[in-house]
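Dock adenosine monophosphate; give full complex structure.
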Amino acid sequence: MLNIIICGAPGSGKGTQSALIKDKYNLLHLSTGDLLRAEIAAKSDLGRVAESYIANGQLVPDSMIIDILDKAISEREAADTYNGLILDGFPRTVAQAEALEGLLKKHGKELSVLLDLAVDEAELVDRLIKRGQTSGRSDDNLETIKKRLDVYHEKTEPVNDYYKKQGKYVAIPGMGSIDEIFGRICEAIEKL
Ligand code: AMP
């Protein structure tokens, strides 16, 4: 089984690369951002609560996100034809990383690696502004992008140290073409 976390700042290419990785290695792709946006589109109670956090560039509370992910794994792994999981945008706090250990155990899984996409800050802002022109996302505007980057440095970067201590952290240079970056990721996965 291959259970991967793909991590990195907003705009680092997590979603783009996850789509390529899941196809190549036949993994179940779970993006907590996508799961939240689906709740918002469905106008669920959870979606209504999540909406204001997302539009303000803040993280949704840990307990809420852990419940959503637990539910998503339970629902989707039933048709278990996958070779593992790719978690995109989770964990984003150390508390989520700690909870993930229990969650994976509960579902009979173990983490293989965290891949951290490293991209220059100016490039991140550029990519997100460009994406905002077509994404329709409430959080792809300059003011919210800056807040998301601050939150990333404060709350999400410490997650890297958590996995470094476990020897499961691999940094992937995230600058260059989509194919070049994907090539680096495949190399890292094949070394596992
Ligand atoms: P993303 O699509 O991964 O960029 O996520 C968009 C937004 O959803 C984030 O800025 C957060 O507000 C929220 N979100 C996604 N994943 C998480 C998470 N693991 N913990 C807390 N909030 C999250």
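Observed: The CA atoms of residues 112 and 192 lie 8 Å apart.
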